[in-house]
Amino acid sequence: xxxxxxAFYTKPLAIYLVLALIAISTAAGPAxxxxxxxxxxxxxxxxxxxxxxxxxxxxxxxxxxxxxxLVDYGLTPDEAMAKLNNLPDDQLHKLxxxxxxxxxxxxxxxxxxxxxxxxxxxxxxxxxxxxxIQIR
Length: 136
Fold this sequence. Notes:
single chain, 7 helices, mainly alpha, 62% helix
């Protein structure tokens, strides 16, 4: 056990793990929570408003990028709305509530921050192993 504690890589490894934990915890996004509706048929479930759900989906279908993707798949916006009108209320409501969560791209700032942290840690470990930095 003593030989493991005295090994040359013990302190750099411990420092790396502490710094990695700090980096991961600072780059984490906010916690999210939402209301979970009760089971259907219990009498307390919120009523589904089909007209409001269709309006939300119609607004999303009016964007140029969505229209272009529909054309690429061989559908016109009118055909897509006709197919949406045939959906059951619960599926239509699920689509309308989740349509805002669709993202076009990723989080560039978080990715860039993580890459900078990783690069700094690699440089730090290289300096430690070369003996340029002394840890006492």
